Each structure stands twice: as C-alpha cells, then as structure tokens.
C-alpha cells in the first residue's frame, strides 16, 4: 500500500493515471454516444428480430436448373441444414475459433490482439473480429464520419453484435452470416458463391472447395480463385491447417487435402455473360410488366431485384448450350468467308456506309445536340483510347477510336435462333445474337427482317386450302406484271430459265422457284394469303403486292416460329412463351402461365399433311438437301430455306415432330449484305446452325424423344394427290404458239 501511495505521489505516475482516465473517459463517452444514437440510430432488438435482406431472383430452366439471377447483390439464402459440417468447421476454425463461447464480442481475442499487435508489434496476431461482428458489418455496413470513424463503427458493430446474440441462436447467426457474407466477383452468400465458382449447391461442396471459399473471406479479390489460383491454393491450405490446429481435421487428412488440385467450374450469372443472356434479358423485361400487376399480401409491390423470387422457365439449359455452340462454330467459319469474299472493297470500309452509321450513333447525336460542328464531332470521335473488342478468335484490347471501333463492328454477321416445342410454344433454346456484351440488340424479341422464301409455304398453304391440288403444274417462264411497274420476278438456277418446263407444287416449293411462287400467289389472290397468314398467328400489316410471295414482308422471328409450329400441331399456331410460373421466396406460386395455342385450326388436316410432305422434300431433295448429304442427319425433318433480295438475310426453318427451329443470319446494318448468293443463301448461312445443333442433340440420348420422333402418316388421299411426275415440258404446239414471256395483271383478291 505504501508503495502504491509513493508511486501516486510521483508526478509522472499522476500524469499517466490522468491520461489513462481521460482515455477511458473518452472511450466511454464515445460508446455511450453511439449507444444513444448520436451517430445514427441503431437497430433495436425488435428490428433485428425481423431482418430483411435483399435476395436475388432466381431464373430456373425447365428442369429446375439455375440459369441466371436478377439482383443488386448476388445473394441466394439457405437454411442451416443446407450447410455441410466441414464448411462450418472451416469458417469457425479460420475466422472465429471461440465463436460458441463468446456473446458477440470476444474479449479474450481482443486482449490478445491488443497485447500482440500494439505492445509486442506482432503482425501475426490476427484480428479480434468475431463472426457476429462481421455479420453486423455485413448487415448494416459502415459510415464515414469526420473523426474517429473506425472507432465509432466498431462500437456500433459491437452493440449490434451483442443484440444479435441476445435474439438469435448460434446456428441462426451462422445461417445469416453465410447468406450475407461477400465473396469474390460481387457475390453475396455461400450458395451464390458455390454455384458461381464450382457450379454446384453449397451442400455439395467438397472439403477443398469449402476451404477455398472460406479462404477468400480474408481478401476477396486477392484470393479470388478465378484470378489468382496460386494465392487461393495457398490460402486454402492455411484454412486446412487451422482446421487441424483446432481439431476438425487430422494431420493425415490435411496432408492429403493439400495435394488436391483446385478445379474451378466457373459459371457467371452476370447479366452480360453466361448461358442464354438474351433470353434472360427478354424474360426480365417480361417480368417487370408482370410484377406491375401483382401485389404482396401487405399491398406492397414485388421487387425483382430484392424479393428472392423464383422464376420457372421453359428453357432447356443443355439444349441452349448446344444452340450457342452451333452458332459459335458456324459463324466463326462463315465470318472468315464473308470478310474474304469482299477483299479490299468491303462495304464496312466504305466512307458512305461508315458516315451513315456514324451519324446514327448516340454519341454523335449527343455532340450534335450540344452544338458541335461536324468537323469537331469527327475530331472527337477520332481520339484513340484503349477498348475491348469482340472477335471470334478471342477478345482483344486495342488502342482505337470510336470510328475505328464502328468499322470493326460493322463487319460482323449476327444471328437469331429460336427453338420451340410446337405443341405448346414452350421456348427450349433462344439465341438473340452473337455476344450480348457487345451486341445488345435481340434478333428474336426486337428485330423484324424480310423473311425471303420462308414466306412461300404460307402462299402454298393458302392455295391448297383454297382447293388447288399438289399436282397442279406451273411454268417456270418469267411473267411481267404490268400493274406493278412491269415487275418481272426471275429465278437464279440455270435450269429454271427453261420457259417450257413446268413444276408441280412439291417440286416448285422444294426447289424454291420464285416465278412459280408469284404465279401461285396470283392464282389464289394476295388478300386470301394475308388472311391465311393472320390465321397462322402473324398479325401485322403485310404489303399488298406480288413480291409478298418472295418474302419482302418484315416479320418477327418469334411470330414466324409460332406460325410454322402449326404444321406439327394439328394446324394450330402457338405463341412462343418463356415463363411457366413465378414463386415468392417462401415457395408460394404468385403467377402461373399456360401455353397460348390458337383455339381454331388455321387450315385443314389435308392441307397440313400435304405441306409437311412437300417441306420434307425440301430437305430430302430440295434446297435443304445438304442436311442429308453434308451433315448426315437422318431425323424426320421438314424445312424451308430463305434468302432475301441482294443477299441481305439468310433463313432456315427446321421442322421436326417435337421441335421447330428458326435460324436467321445477316448484318445488323441493312446496307451490308453477303457478297454472293452462294455465301448468303439460307442453305449456306443459316441452315448449318440448325444442322450442328441437331448433330449435338442426336449425340445426346437425353433428347431421343425429340430426335427419334416421326411425323404423322399422311392419309391415302394425300399420297395419291402427290403421286405425279415432279416436272413436265410443254407440248410442241404450246411451245410453238405459247410464247416465253407473258404480260399480265395481278390478282389481289
């Protein structure tokens, strides 16, 4: 006691005590101020008992497989039972070994950190932050204050952590932590991280995978296994060592686990990349409209990005992957041929084409609106900067200007591909373009292009429905239609130039003969064809002119697919659809959707059977014969190729009994077409996508029900009516007196 009194009398001890009391007083004042809400209101226990966190909306395919998410934070909640024990062990051993002993703030660990870090200057002392403290930070974040920001935030987290521990069990705390903790690549929650980095649910994580993800919590970017594999493995092994240190693993187990490779199966759910980005974007737009019509039980509106909805779709993710692969393989090759065909005189290098495209750019219009002269705008758009550029052989970073970038992208062919189940309209595969990162325009939901010869079956359907027999013959000769500026449709194949040769309907359509298609249209009348097309689900204004037979009408790819589905759906068109039902986060169905199938048939069974036989001839011996000869497809297939004027668009419609697929290939810029018909014709530009897609389906037994399906057997009447010679020549007197070039007026009715 005397010793203490003597020390207190010493001046330096007095000052030390005073400073100590002041420090304690300072911390006490700050703590009380934080507790009383001087630095912002703290959540009460009542508010903490009903914690509400933003949860990602999940997008599932037809088999319940995750194909995408809509989120602000990529978070996907689980229950405690969904966490494997070794995942929990890894977390506790690495982040908070005394988790089950403290009440939210680990005073023992804090004292250790204080002594080792501050007094002994030991950088290996670790941190004093508990799992509960980290949870408090994850839930409520941190704020910046003019002074003592870190101290104030730490006190806030400590108070919140203690309140959390008073309300929730340790298992509940672990559940909330795992559902909110940030992982690499802007991923929140263990389920999202597991699916992103290993393409599996968290419950299936191996020891190595679990330790890898837990290891990233120390520094999510530095230990990102996608970016820094070596660092990630080193950190994973540290987690193993911690698990051994605290009795969760034996040394033999650690030695074995350390030898395992780190195998990443990365699957991004970023809006611009990953599987089916165009589909996901189209569904998102549809969901926004749907959710505007729905309310929660409390009257609040649903939030697509926060409410953890589950959207079930019709897409088949395996089929989608095959479709995307078919597009990539074919267009990689076709793009090279396309560029080579133009040589030095490519239209995307033309000053006229480039200038026209330049003036349509948003940035050009922005500068123009700001009052810049054309010269000033061009100067601004000529400034070079580093930009990422798309390429089929791989993306690249180049130092280029906006004008250079425009020229680069003008050359690329684009595509649209849609596969639907014809009996329901359920979308199974959806490719809206070649790469959503660089080409946002969706050629399925947004685009309307001239459909070329894919319109011809509608003309023939009308004619047969109107009573024309399949063995009706038409001459190949050219006819000039005087009431349409003396328009004279022509054919492209040399044999078809014989004016005395006649084809029946099957041969004419399977060989896609232009002159006969127009004559059939003239025979039946334009207005009848338009009415027939409307019955087949294409509800848009079509041109009242003879060139309609050759596909000058611009039609949406989705509508075209729904119309063609009628040929294998008992003559009823369908409306392609993507969403089957929407559930809230508790699994309650809040909206469901049924197939939209026409109530009435668009044409008779006889017409359907005749058209199917004719379009099978297109594949077996007509313009789509390369499906058999070049791609060796033995499936039951009917189809139609299509090429538009000046080779701007290539089309192919592939019909099988249980799947209808439409593919389109062309340039986004309408002034740029293919160099020649041999390259741009639908059989060369669009058909191979279908062919490569079906080769993949044929090799996968999962799709046997589709690939091995057979068409309905036609009636004997249909077979008899199709039983005639494919072609015949005019007789001697008709050749002598008939003439080869006729003029006539066109029948609109």
From TrEMBL:
Domain (Penicillin-binding protein transpeptidase) ranges = 420-658
Give the principal location in a single coarse category.
membrane
Specify one Pfam family: Transpeptidase
Q: Which residues form the Glycosyl transferase family domain?
A: 67-244
Identify the InterPro entries for this entry.
Answer: Beta-lactam/transpept-like, Glyco_trans_51, Glycosyltr_51/Transpeptidase, Lysozyme-like_dom_sf, PBP_transglycosylase, PCN-bd_Tpept
Report the superkingdom from the record: Bacteria
What pathway is it annotated to? Answer: Cell wall biogenesis; peptidoglycan biosynthesis
- Key words, A-Z: Carboxypeptidase, Cell membrane, Cell shape, Cell wall biogenesis/degradation, Glycosyltransferase, Hydrolase, Membrane, Multifunctional enzyme, Peptidoglycan synthesis, Protease, Transferase, Transmembrane, Transmembrane helix
Q: Where are the transmembrane segments?
A: 12-39
Reactions that this protein is recorded to catalyse: [GlcNAc-(1->4)-Mur2Ac(oyl-L-Ala-gamma-D-Glu-L-Lys-D-Ala-D-Ala)](n)-di-trans,octa-cis-undecaprenyl diphosphate + beta-D-GlcNAc-(1->4)-Mur2Ac(oyl-L-Ala-gamma-D-Glu-L-Lys-D-Ala-D-Ala)-di-trans,octa-cis-undecaprenyl diphosphate = [GlcNAc-(1->4)-Mur2Ac(oyl-L-Ala-gamma-D-Glu-L-Lys-D-Ala-D-Ala)](n+1)-di-trans,octa-cis-undecaprenyl diphosphate + di-trans,octa-cis-undecaprenyl diphosphate + H(+); Preferential cleavage: (Ac)2-L-Lys-D-Ala-|-D-Ala. Also transpeptidation of peptidyl-alanyl moieties that are N-acyl substituents of D-alanine
Q: Where, subcellularly, is it found?
A: Cell membrane
Q: Which PANTHER family match?
A: BINDING PROTEIN TRANSPEPTIDASE, PUTATIVE-RELATED, PENICILLIN-BINDING PROTEIN 1B
Assigned protein family = In the C-terminal section; belongs to the transpeptidase family. In the N-terminal section; belongs to the glycosyltransferase 51 family.
Protein's name in the database: Transglycosylase domain-containing protein
Species name: Snuella lapsa
């Amino acid at each position: 006691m005397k010793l203490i009194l003597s020390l207190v009398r010493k001046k330096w001890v007095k000052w030390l005590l005073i400073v100590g009391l002041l420090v304690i007083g300072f911390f006490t004042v700050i703590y009380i101020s934080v507790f009383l809400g001087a630095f912002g209101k703290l959540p009460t226990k009542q508010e903490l008992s009903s914690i509400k966190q933003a949860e990602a909306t999940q997008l599932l395919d037809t088999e319940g497989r995750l194909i995408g998410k809509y989120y602000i934070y990529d978070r996907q909640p689980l229950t405690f039972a969904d966490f494997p024990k070794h995942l929990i062990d890894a977390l506790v051993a690495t982040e908070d070994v005394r988790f089950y002993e403290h009440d939210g703030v680990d005073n023992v660990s804090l004292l250790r950190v204080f002594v080792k870090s501050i007094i002994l200057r030991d950088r290996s002392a670790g941190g004093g932050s508990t799992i509960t403290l980290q949870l408090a930070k994850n839930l409520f974040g941190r704020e910046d204050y003019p002074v003592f920001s870190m101290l104030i935030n730490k006190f806030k987290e400590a108070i919140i952590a203690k309140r959390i521990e008073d309300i929730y069990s340790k298992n509940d705390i672990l559940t909330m932590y795992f559902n909110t903790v940030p992982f690499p690549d802007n991923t929140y929650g263990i389920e999202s991280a597991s699916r992103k980095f290993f393409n599996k649910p968290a419950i299936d994580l191996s020891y190595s995978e679990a330790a890898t993800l837990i290891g990233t919590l120390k520094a999510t970017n530095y230990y990102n296994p996608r970016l820094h594999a070596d660092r990630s493995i080193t950190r994973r092994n540290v987690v193993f060592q911690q698990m051994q240190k605290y009795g969760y693993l034996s040394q033999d187990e650690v030695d074995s686990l350390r030898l395992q490779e780190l195998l990443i199966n990365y699957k991004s759910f970023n809006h611009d990349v990953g599987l089916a980005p165009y589909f996901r974007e189209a569904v998102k737009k549809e969901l926004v409209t749907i959710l505007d019509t729905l309310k929660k039980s409390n009257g609040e509106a649903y939030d697509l990005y926060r409410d953890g909805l589950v959207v079930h779709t019709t897409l088949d993710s395996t089929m989608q992957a095959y479709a995307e692969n078919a597009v990539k393989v074919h267009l990689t090759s076709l793009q090279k041929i396309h560029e080579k065909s133009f040589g030095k005189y490519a239209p995307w290098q033309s000053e006229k084409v480039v200038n026209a495209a330049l003036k349509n750019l948003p940035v050009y219009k922005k500068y123009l609106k700001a009052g810049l002269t054309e010269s000033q705008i061009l100067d601004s758009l000529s400034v070079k900067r580093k930009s990422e550029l798309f390429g089929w052989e791989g993306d690249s970073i180049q130092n280029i200007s906006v004008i250079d970038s425009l020229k680069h992208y003008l050359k690329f062919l684009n595509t649209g591909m849609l596969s639907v189940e014809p009996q329901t309209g359920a979308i199974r595969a959806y490719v809206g373009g070649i790469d959503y990162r660089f080409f946002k325009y969706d050629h399925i939901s947004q685009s309307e292009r001239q459909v070329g010869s894919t319109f011809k079956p509608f003309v023939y359907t009308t004619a047969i429905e109107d009573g024309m027999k399949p063995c009706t013959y038409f001459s190949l000769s050219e006819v000039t239609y005087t009431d349409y500026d003396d328009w004279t449709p022509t054919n492209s194949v040399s044999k078809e130039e014989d004016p005395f040769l006649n084809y029946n309907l099957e041969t004419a359509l399977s060989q896609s003969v232009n002159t006969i298609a127009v004559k059939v249209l003239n025979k039946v009348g334009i207005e009848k064809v338009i009415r027939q097309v409307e019955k087949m689900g294409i509800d848009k204004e079509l041109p009242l002119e003879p060139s309609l037979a050759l596909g000058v009408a611009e039609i949406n790819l989705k509508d075209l697919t729904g119309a063609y589905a009628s040929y294998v759906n008992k003559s009823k068109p369908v409306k392609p659809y993507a969403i089957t039902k929407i559930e809230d986060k508790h699994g309650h169905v809040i909206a469901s959707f049924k197939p939209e199938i026409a109530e009435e048939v668009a044409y008779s069974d006889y017409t359907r059977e005749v058209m199917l036989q004719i379009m099978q001839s297109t594949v077996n011996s007509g313009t789509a014969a390369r499906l058999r000869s070049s791609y060796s497809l033995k499936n039951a297939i009917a189809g139609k190729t299509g090429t538009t004027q000046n080779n701007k668009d290539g089309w192919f419609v592939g019909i099988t009994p249980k799947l209808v697929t439409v593919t389109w290939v062309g340039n986004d810029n309408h002034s740029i077409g293919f160099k020649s018909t041999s390259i741009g014709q639908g059989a060369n530009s669009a058909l191979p996508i279908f062919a490569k897609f079906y080769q993949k389906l044929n090799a996968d037994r999962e799709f046997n029900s589709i690939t091995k399906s057979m068409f309905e057997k036609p009636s004997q009447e249909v077979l008899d009516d199709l039983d005639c010679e494919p072609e015949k020549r005019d007789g001697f007197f008709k050749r002598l007196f008939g003439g080869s070039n006729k003029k006539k007026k066109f029948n609109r009715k």
